[in-house]
From TrEMBL, chain A:
Recorded GO CC terms: COPII vesicle coat; cytosol; endoplasmic reticulum exit site; endoplasmic reticulum membrane
Principal subcellular localization: cytoplasm
UniProt cross-references to InterPro entries, sorted A to Z: ADF-H/Gelsolin-like_dom_sf (IPR029006), Beta-sandwich_Sec23_24 (IPR012990), Gelsolin-like_dom (IPR007123), Gelsolin-like_dom_sf (IPR036180), Sec23/24_helical_dom (IPR006900), Sec23/24_helical_dom_sf (IPR036175), Sec23/24_trunk_dom (IPR006896), SEC23_SEC24_subfamily (IPR050550)
One Gene Ontology term from the biological process aspect of the record: COPII-coated vesicle cargo loading
Lineage, highest ranks first: Eukaryota, Metazoa, Chordata, Craniata, Vertebrata
Region Disordered, annotated ranges: 200-233, 295-321, 337-457
Protein name: SEC24 homolog B, COPII coat complex component
Biological source species: Neovison vison (American mink)
Family: Belongs to the SEC23/SEC24 family. SEC24 subfamily.
Pfam families: Gelsolin (PF00626), Sec23_BS (PF08033), Sec23_helical (PF04815), Sec23_trunk (PF04811), zf-Sec23_Sec24 (PF04810)
Biased segments, Acidic residues type: 352-365
From TrEMBL, chain B:
Any GO BP: endoplasmic reticulum to Golgi vesicle-mediated transport
UniProt-listed InterPro entries: Cornichon
Protein's gene: CNIH4
Superkingdom of the organism of origin: Eukaryota
Record's subcellular location: Membrane
Name of this chain's protein: Cornichon family member 4
Organism field: Ursus americanus
Length: 1208, 139
């Protein structure tokens, strides 16, 4: 699941600012990309002739230079921290050293040194690009970008990052070395390129076999590494014969190749063998390697150690663990072999084991398909830079994919031998295959492959020959491994659990996102489950199997997350598959040096010349080490090819309800206040435009044209045929008309205080807003406080208060008119998103109004019973939400495409967007709080693949970032109004499981532990506002809850459905974590049941958007005094929404814990202190979902109910 | 008289066949991503009512002219057309809703429906043709 975010850079200059802004929001790294970007464009045209030296003088150029030098200097000098103090020197280093480097053959080097004329040009440009590239990763780039932002006077929206960076704003040359910000990427970059350790490792492993090592490896080769490569090799070879039963000649061939390659380049050997024996295999391997490297670098200490540990551990444990690890590989290999041999389907393929789901993150390739003008210089530069080591490159390049596997294996086995084992078994289970029954099949399937695999295990790995020679041994060990798998270290997730007897089913720690069942190497490559997640950890091979499992197969996406480390790639060409347009990603396989195979459609594509050069390692012929292939989530800065039109400026329009009802509620004060405060922080560049409209029974426009002494109000009373009085001056430049805007915002709250107009012409106002926005697109924020009662789109009240608590069918959940939907689609077509803030005390038919946001990719905020004085907590929430809303990053004109492996197709989409074509979601705006879900079906059997990949590409303008959100237990995303459907889901999935587990008594309710929380979550969902019956629920509340379920990222959603309960009166530092020098205690999670509440305690419930602190009646007075600041229980006020800042240890702990919880979510939750006995406690207790309520089961009853259903 | 009824039915049926083909083409365009859902649905929704009317007329005509077998053959399809039209939720933009068409396999079911209708109309076409010739001969 990778995202590609391309921000089209229209004209070099224009795009820069926008990019920079977005950068600050996203990450440090991102900005660099943007900042750099323009340079690429500019540089070739103007500055180049002058030579690299001159470039430094210009600010932009200087950045380039810095990058450039940083990259180059580092690698050459082996300096870990890039000191770019002297840009030019750095660059010169490059040049000077380039020739001397072993790689450089000599054909082109001349051009290098001869700094003159065209060749030089080319070189420099190339160098810059790469450097940019690198910079993205490294922190320094960030700085530069930020600095540029600061200089331009853009608001830095993202507080933490931007702030620090901005402060350093001085140009890049200043402080590279010291930058901590570069963080993971930066470090990775360095390590990978420069760090002696990484390189050496690989080479070392090879070195044993091969005499000549091209790369200088300062460090002595760690022996452990050697194992891995051999492993893979041996695995392949053995597999090929054992499985396919091909003549021994093949082996020989394989060996020969390996041997020859080994001499040339250790890395190459692996690849070659792979390619020869089974091309498919490569898919796996390349992936592995890249992640490993990166991980090692970033967590320098952590990953590094494992390899060392591997050694001792592996030999001993070789029987069990290694085999297990390899098993997956083995399986894959087996499959491949089969395919090649075209033999009858082997047990492997037939069993469900093979199914793995893979989530891929896409990375967009910079180079390939679309090259822009500057492309031509690139190749030249490559050669020159590389030192023209073409021949060498070829030999090694072929191996490029291979090297990856080699390095990776090492880290993988060490850190996660245990985890790897469970995976294979896991795969089978979820799909309803009973464990016991599976086993035989499993062994059959896996064993043969394993045999190949075990050799690869560390012990053998060192000695390739051995492994190959003694297949029997290998098989034996593999068999053992298989056995051991079944018995002991077994997958925790598969352990059967008797739900009715397990009392404390909820883990003490927060539930982590399930991770797909991949082997470790792939796991590392996979993108974060928070961004992109699949509902199942293994993908069934056939639709029939999927149906049997009764679990929905889907993807949860949370693109555009606020990410702190995202590689940004600036390049003129983005490598994509020719047939399916997939961006190159870590899961593709390199068949040889020149070709790669798409992992989604399996088409073989050429590797473009430009892509052969790896800016990170500054080497040629290693396309697999490019950042696109190393990272599952990448951001590309796209060239103008990707643009529909020049990037639009950020345009914000506020449409405000000023009818009597709205004025009564008093939201205008809060809104204007927030706007005034955040006016400078609105994301955007110098072209940012803003406008205001108000409406009651007429529509009021505000002319804010620069030069006016005060804002002009223009009233249009013809609501049947709305027109724009002065189309040009209603949306004005934020910076040019800032004074007028401020005047207006100051005046607005008082302008309508005496209004008697009770009607609301929302529809016409929206039509006018659409007209106003259609030339540019942008964001419309609508504030509405009542039912629209005039003009187009008027609505009737459909709610019958008496029906609120009925247990019968809930009606009117759908929209009453298609007006808002049509409007939304129009807006979506014009790249305009409508965000709805509904602040109403009575029914406002959110079901209809929500359509305007749902289909235009907007968002919906609902504040029931909003009143600025009567309901201060809502007012505070609005204020905080507005702050976040106004300042969060935003992407315009976004388009998201989800691609998946051939055979899968998407059939249902959830979220706020418009599905434009089968896999293309059009998002007028994208914001970091939006989550999406997609349901998949399997159209063709997936028997011939072992990996399923998904790639999500998000294209947006000027703000970028893409990520995926998650699906958990899929239920949360599949919204059916029928509660029965949910119950049935549990019944079905459990009974499906039960029927597979033949040897367990049927009287008990058994579930695999990976599904143990499933019934609980379903019950929670049933008790949630959206689905509950029997409890009085307002229709708007219900609809809002449904909207939230559909469009929230899973992380936040889960808290809404199943709140976390903590006991906070006895916080200790035990298990505490440190965040920003603050100790954050980590109290254990409590069951959501009144039985856990004690009168002596105080409890914090985290419901996502609300925190409740429940104070027991006889709570310790010390706690009340220390934390709440009141002497005893009786003196605590009824409405308390803040914890005082007291200078006591327990207060500090409580506050730091709450702050920590708060910081993790976009919308700041409100805090309610709830006293036992206070009327507000019902709100608290309704979240205790494991308890019985008047209308709903307790958890235990629910289980019994399910059990009853199953037995029926 | 009999001949006139069938000539009219034949023409009407031809139109319905063309309409079905048009539906199929448009839907497959959408499937292949040649047009977007919005334009596809607005195109198709325009023709839902004409199709409904055209088919209802034939059905009624058959009832009036007492061709029971053909009437009964047409009845289910006509009923389905009307039912589908009536049952469109109030918030949808017609039988084909651009926001829904990609969800829950609706595109596929629309496609299937159009295919079945095409087959049905072809069948009807030959039936009318045969009946028309028969009627002309009898005259």
């Amino acid at each position: 699941l990778s995202w590609k975010a391309a921000s089209p850079s229209p004209t070099p200059l224009a795009c820069v600012p926008s990019l920079a802004v977005s950068l600050s929001n996203n990450q440090m790294q991102v900005p660099s990309g943007y900042g750099v970007h323009p340079q690429n464009y500019i540089a070739p045209s103007g500055h180049y002739p002058q030579g690299p030296g001159k470039m430094t003088s210009l600010p932009l150029d200087s950045q380039c230079g810095d990058y450039y030098s940083g990259l180059y200097t580092v690698p050459t000098q082996n300096v870990v921290t890039p000191n770019t103090a002297n840009q030019q020197p750095g660059a010169q280093h490059m040049y000077g050293r380039g020739p001397s480097a072993p790689h450089i053959v000599g054909s082109t080097p001349g051009s290098f040194q001869g700094a003159t004329s065209p060749t030089l040009h080319l070189h420099t440009s190339a160098a810059q690009r790469y450097s940019h590239f690198v910079n993205h990763y490294s922190s320094p780039a960030m700085y530069s970008a930020n600095s540029s932002v600061a200089s331009q006077g853009f608001p830095s929206t993202c507080a933490h990052y931007a702030m620090s960076t901005v402060s350093t704003a001085a140009y890049p040359s200043v402080s590279y070395p010291s930058l901590p910000a570069g963080d993971p990427y930066g470090q990775q970059m360095f390590t990978s390129q420069n760090a002696p350790t990484v390189r050496p490792l690989r080479e070392n492993s090879f070195s044993d076999h091969s005499t000549a090592i091209s790369h200088p490896s300062p460090l002595p080769p760690p022996p452990s590494h050697q194992y891995h490569q051999p492993q893979s090799l041996s695995g392949c070879s053995t597999l090929s014969w054992s499985a396919s039963g091909l003549p021994s000649t093949q082996h020989n061939i394989v060996r020969n190749h390996t041997g020859s390659l080994a001499t040339a380049n250790s890395n190459s050997t692996n690849t070659v063998t792979d390619s020869l024996s089974c091309p498919v295999m490569q898919n796996v391997q390349p992936l592995k390697s890249s992640p490993v490297v990166s991980t090692v670098l970033s967590g320098a200490s952590s990953t590094r150690t494992p390899p060392a540990a591997n050694r001792p551990v592996e030999p001993v444990a070789s029987v069990t663990q290694p085999s297990e690890l390899l098993q997956q590989k083995g399986m894959q290999y087996g499959d491949y072999v089969n395919n090649q041999a075209s033999s009858a389907p082997t047990p492997l393929s037939s069993t469900s084991d093979d199914e793995e789901e893979e989530e891929e993150d896409e990375e967009a390739g910079v180079d390939s398909s679309s090259t822009t003008s500057s492309a031509s210089p690139m190749p030249n530069s490559y050669d020159a830079l590389e030192g023209g080591s073409y021949p060498d490159m070829l030999s090694s390049s072929a191996s490029s994919p291979a090297p990856d596997p080699a390095p990776e294996p090492d880290p993988a086995p060490a850190p996660a031998p245990a985890s790897s084992a469970p995976q294979p078994s896991k795969m089978t289970k979820p799909f309803g295959y009973g464990y016991p029954t599976l086993q035989p099949g499993y062994q059959n399937a896996t064993a043969p492959p394993n045999s190949g695999v075990p050799p690869s295990s560390p012990g053998y790995s060192g000695f390739q020959p051995y492994a190959q020679q003694y297949p029997g041994m290998n098989q034996l060990s593999s068999g053992l491994g298989g056995l051991s798998l079944q018995s002991s270290p077994q997958p925790e997730s598969l352990r059967p659990i008797n739900l009715t007897q397990e009392r404390n089913i909820l883990p003490v720690t927060p539930v982590w996102a399930p991770v797909p069942n991949l082997n470790l190497d792939l796991k590392k490559l996979n993108c974060s489950p928070d961004s992109f997640r699949c509902t199942l950890t293994n993908i069934p091979q056939t639709q029939a199997l999927l149906n049997k499992a009764k679990l929905p197969l889907g993807l949860l996406l949370h693109p555009f997350r606020d990410l702190t480390q995202l590689p940004v790639i600036t390049s003129n060409t983005i490598v994509r598959c020719r047939s399916c347009r997939t961006y190159i990603n870590p899961f593709v396989s390199f068949i040889d040096q020149r070709r790669w195979k798409c992992n989604l459609c399996y088409r073989v594509n050429d590797v473009p010349e430009e892509f052969m050069y790896n800016p990170l390692t500054r080497s040629y012929g290693e396309p697999h080490k490019r950042p696109e292939v190393q990272n599952s989530t990448v951001e590309f800065i796209a060239s103008s090819d990707y643009m529909l039109r020049p990037p639009q400026p950020a345009v914000y329009l506020f449409v405000l309800d000023v009818s009597h009802n709205a004025v009564e509620a008093g939201y205008l004060t809060i809104l204007c206040q927030s706007l005034l405060e955040n006016l400078d922080k609105l994301p955007g560049d110098s072209r940012t435009r803003i406008g205001f409209m108000t409406f009651d029974s007429t529509i009021h426009f505000y002319n804010l044209q620069e030069g006016l002494s005060q804002p002009q109000m223009l009233i249009v009373s013809d609501i049947d045929d709305v027109f724009l009085p002065t189309p040009d001056s209603l949306l004005v430049n934020l910076y040019e008309s800032k004074e007028l805007i401020k005047d207006l915002l100051n005046a607005l709250p008082n302008m309508f205080t005496n209004t008697r107009e009770t009607h609301s012409a929302l529809g016409p106002a929206l039509q006018a807003a659409f007209k106003l926005m259609s030339p540019t697109g942008g964001r419309v924020s609508v504030f509405q406080t009542q039912l629209p009662s005039l003009g187009a789109g008027l609505l009737q009240s459909r709610e019958d208060p008496n029906q609120r608590s009925s247990t019968k069918v809930v009606q009117h959940l759908g929209p009453a008119t298609d007006f808002y939907k049509k409007l939304a689609l129009d807006c979506s077509g014009q790249q305009t998103a409508v965000d709805l803030f509904l602040l109403s005390s009575q029914y406002s038919d959110l079901a209809s109004l929500a359509c305007m946001s749902k289909y235009s990719a907007g968002c919906i905020y609902y504040y029931p019973s909003f009143h600025y004085t009567h309901n201060p907590s809502q007012a505070e929430k609005l204020q905080k939400d507005l702050k976040r809303y106004l300042t969060r990053k935003i992407g315009f004109e976004a388009v998201m495409r989800i691609r998946c492996t051939k055979g899968l197709s998407m059939h249902t989409f959830h979220g706020n967007f418009f599905v434009r074509s089968t896999d293309l979601l059009s998002l007028a705006n994208i914001n970091p709080d939006a989550g999406f879900a997609v349901q998949l079906s399997i159209e063709e059997n997936l028997t011939d693949t072992s990996l399923v990949c998904f790639q999500t590409a998000l294209l947006y303008t000027s703000s970028k970032g893409s990520y995926v959100s998650a699906v958990d237990r899929s239920v949360s995303s599949s919204l059916s109004d029928a509660r029965d459907a949910l119950v049935n889901a549990v019944v079905d999935s459990l009974s499906a499981y039960g029927s597979m587990v033949s040897n367990l008594q049927h009287s008990a309710l058994i579930a695999p532990s990976s599904l143990k929380l499933f019934p609980l979550y379903v019950l929670a969902l049933l008790k949630q506002k959206a689905f509950r019956t029997g409890t009085s629920t307002r229709l708007d509340d219900r609809v809002y809850a449904m909207c939230q379920i559909k469009c929230q990222p899973l992380v936040h959603l889960m808290k809404m459905i199943h709140p976390n309960l903590y006991r906070i009166d006895r916080l200790t530092d035990e298990g505490a974590i440190h965040v920003n020098d603050k100790v954050v205690p980590q109290p254990p999670l409590q069951k959501l049941s009144a039985e856990k509440l004690t009168r002596e305690g105080a409890f914090l419930m985290d419901c996502g958007s609300v925190f409740y602190i429940w104070i027991g009646k006889s709570c310790d007075n010390h706690f009340i005094e220390d934390v709440l600041g009141y002497p005893n229980f009786a003196s605590i006020p009824q409405k308390m929404t803040h914890l005082p800042e007291l200078d006591t240890l327990s207060s500090e702990r409580a506050r730091s814990f709450i702050t920590w919880l708060r910081d993790n979510r976009p919308l700041s939750p409100i805090l309610h202190v709830v006293k036992d006995e206070s009327p507000a406690k019902t709100e608290f207790f309704q979240h205790l979902i494991e308890d019985r309520t008047e209308a709903a089961f307790s958890y235990y009853e629910f289980l019994l109910h399910i059990q009853h259903q199953i037995c029926k | 008289m009999e001949a006139v009824v069938f000539v009219f039915s034949l023409l009407d049926c031809c139109a319905l066949i063309f309409l079905s083909v048009y539906f199929i083409i448009t839907l497959s365009d959408l499937e292949c991503d040649y047009i977007n859902a919005r334009s596809c649905c607005s195109k198709l929704n325009k023709w839902v009512i004409p199709e409904l009317i055209g088919h209802t007329i034939v059905t009624v005509l058959m009832l009036v002219s007492l061709h029971w077998f053909i009437f009964l053959l047409n009845l289910p399809v006509a009923t389905w057309n009307i039912y589908r039209f009536i049952m469109v939720p109030s918030g949808n933009m017609g039988v084909f809703d651009p926001t829904e068409i990609h969800n829950r396999g609706q595109l596929k079911s629309h496609m299937k429906e159009a295919m079945i209708k095409l087959g049905f109309h072809l069948l009807c076409f030959f039936m009318y043709l045969y009946s028309m010739i028969l009627a002309l001969i009898n005259d």
